[in-house]
Specification:
Helices cover 33% and strands 23% of the residues. It has a nine-stranded antiparallel beta sheet. A four-stranded antiparallel beta sheet has the order 5-10-15-14, with no helix packed on it.
Length: 631
């Protein structure tokens, strides 16, 4: 699949450079086939402006604000290069390659093909120059002036040392036709050439022994493995574009640890939100990308001890039963977030438990559940037991004061979303404890607490409310259906709450108190709810409208209305999940429905998606008749 934008189309949209990477490297390529230091994105004051730059997952300074260490950028230079006349830029999603065709006012035209090898830290660049006259073309790789980094430039290699050895390594730049003429500068009059920028000695050595064509072949083979894990074919090509662009970006955002909002400075410095990563997890696991999805619960297990110590130091008789993960984690579990009322969120604890339980649901990996998943689930459930559940004198049980969704303000008692999350965490703990034959007494208590919390959910007699007495509307009231699946689809208060939000969503449908639109994350959240209610036409209408509110390459923004945070993995996960649930829905006990919410005007479609217990489900429809390929 290829998505192309040009200068005219970009003038009517919110253009940002194409995101590229491999889960370790992350960078953006602009319409000239370079990384010129221009500012892009966002009309909101709360946002950092996006600027192209190379970053590496986990490479960050060791003191607050724990920023990602910059690893430079590359630009190009020739006579007249400052005067762009016209351009086209194409994202080839299948090959994970960017192609640009840029024309300049002096008649020079430059074609570029650029990719980041999926399995090696190598940026490969091929350029073709079209000009009547000889041209001195320069490629300049610039490290800039990173703080606390010592740089030794020795010909075609740059040696760096951050904070006296915290990070040290090598960067190399070379070409098949341009000559090294300065520090990080390649120059010459060749009309066609390749340039490579590689990181670390092993990948430098591996890359030097191979041509652009060789690298592209192995890069393409790695991507083919990923794409072969699932597919959809639907009549709406715009939805399909957004769906595959989202899968592309989730893959290149899959670090050794987990999936951040985005691996950019502007996206909270590539730190990991325990709440948001669950949506990316669902998009990956429901699409059959089990290996990529596994990283997320594996990461949570790897920092479990840190989460337990954060809650139970053990020095005042405190036990080591409960964990409390940071709201935003660094790679070692250190809290990244600055002080603020968002630190009083506890809803992410449910998501961390759920991703461990859902990984088993989709894969059937009992060893993972026994050794890693259940310890995390148990510690999250115990957190709610010991630090969140409030038993009132009248016998009722609620979740005490916390920050629910941030638009709802501070200190919300018995908040609907957080309570539904706690119920889901408890029920996950009960299922997995019984399956493994563990903690029978605790499982009985968890089951009672889940039932008591369900009885206390806030409502006004007709519909559920975000919290008792709440007068504003919130996407939170949909959470009983998604993401938590703890309220029956026949529950009249839940159905009334869905209808009430639907009527008021334009006023309350952005993540922040801005604008009059509905952000993609919330819109696709609503689409999933409609799909689970069996209303495929309503789900489709939301997906279709939302797909049109994307960037030049069908990339999803946190808030497109304001150009805020493009390439946003949280909404990418929910968009993928929403499309997948038109075709396949899996309950928490492993039951599944095939084509439960197909729009009426889709007589022809096909899909291969992840079913329960490691089974792929593949089917196709022609003229409304379904043919099962496998189950």
């Amino acid at each position: 699949m290829k998505i192309t934008c040009n200068h005219f189309e970009a003038s009517k949209s919110k253009y940002v450079p194409v995101a590229m990477g491999n889960g370790d490297l992350s960078f953006q390529i602009d319409y000239e086939g370079a990384m010129f230091q221009r500012q892009y994105s966002s009309q909101l004051k709360i946002d950092n402006i996006m600027m192209p730059g190379i970053r590496r997952a986990g490479f960050r300074y060791d003191s607050r604000p724990y920023n990602l260490i910059p690893f430079g950028w590359f630009e190009q230079e020739f006579v007249g290069s400052e005067n762009v006349a016209a351009w086209t830029q194409t994202l080839d999603i299948t090959q994970a390659m960017v192609k640009t065709n840029c024309e300049y006012h002096n008649g020079i035209r430059v074609e570029s093909e650029i990719f980041c090898h999926l399995e090696h830290n190598i940026i490969a660049i091929r350029k073709r120059i079209f000009s009547k006259d000889p041209i001195d073309f320069k490629i300049k790789y610039r490290l800039g002036h990173p703080k606390r980094m010592k740089i030794s430039d020795q010909g075609d290699k740059i040696f760096y040392n951050v904070d006296e050895g915290q990070y040290r390594g090598t960067i190399a730049i070379w070409s098949d036709a341009l000559e090294l003429t300065g520090k990080g500068i390649l120059s010459g009059n060749a009309r066609e050439f390749t340039v490579f920028i590689a990181f670390d000695e092993a990948d430098i050595e591996w890359g030097r022994a191979r041509s652009f064509k060789d690298l592209l072949a192995s890069h393409g083979a790695a991507w083919k493995t990923y794409w072969d894990e699932s597919y959809i074919q639907i009549p709406d090509k715009k939805i399909e574009e957004v769906y595959y662009t989202a899968q592309y970006h989730l893959r290149i955002s899959s670090t050794r640890w987990s999936i951040p909002i985005g691996l950019f400075d502007s996206h909270w410095q590539g730190a990991y939100f325990g709440y948001d990563e669950y949506f990316a997890f669902l998009g990956l696991i429901s699409s059959g990308h089990a290996k990529g999805a596994a990283k997320i619960p594996e990461f949570r297990y790897s920092i479990l001890d840190n989460a337990i110590k954060r809650q139970s130091l053990g020095v005042y008789g405190a036990d080591r039963e409960a964990a409390r993960y940071s709201w935003v984690d660094l790679e070692d579990g250190t809290e990244w977030s600055p002080p603020g009322f968002w630190l009083d969120h506890i809803c992410h604890m449910a998501h961390i438990a759920l991703e461990c339980g859902d990984y088993y649901l989709y894969t059937g990996d009992l060893e993972f559940l026994r050794e890693k998943g259940y310890p995390v689930i148990r510690a999250c459930a115990r957190f709610y037991d010991l630090l969140a559940v409030e038993r009132r004198p009248d016998g009722s049980v609620i979740i005490g004061k916390c920050t629910d969704l941030e638009r709802l303000g501070i200190g919300r008692e018995n908040a609907f979303l957080t309570t539904c999350g706690a119920i889901a965490a408890y029920e996950t703990a009960v299922r997995t404890a019984k399956l493994l034959g563990r903690d029978s007494k605790l499982a009985q208590e968890w089951q009672k607490l889940a039932a008591a919390l369900r009885e206390s959910l806030p409502h006004d007699g007709e519909k559920y409310l975000p919290y008792p007495g709440c007068e504003q509307k919130s996407i939170a009231v949909l959470s009983g259906i998604f993401p938590y699946s703890v309220i029956s689809l026949k529950d009249t208060k839940q159905l009334a709450a869905v209808a009430d939000f639907r009527k008021n969503k334009k006023m309350f449908g952005n993540m922040y108190n801005v604008g009059q639109g509905v952000c993609t994350w919330y819109a696709t959240w609503e689409a999933i709810v409609n799909a689970r209610m069996g209303n495929g036409d309503a789900a489709y209408e939301i997906l279709s409208r939302t797909a049109k509110a994307t960037g030049c390459f069908s990339e999803i923004f946190e808030i497109y209305e304001f150009g805020h945070k493009p390439w946003f993995t949280t909404a990418e996960g929910t968009f993928i999940q929403a499309v997948n649930e038109l075709f396949l829905q899996i309950s928490k006990n492993g039951d599944f429905k095939i084509t439960p919410a197909i729009p009426e005007h889709w007589p022809d479609y096909a899909f291969k998606l992840q079913g329960p217990s490691g089974h792929k489900i593949e089917a196709a429809s022609h003229n409304g008749k379904i043919f099962m390929a496998s189950e």
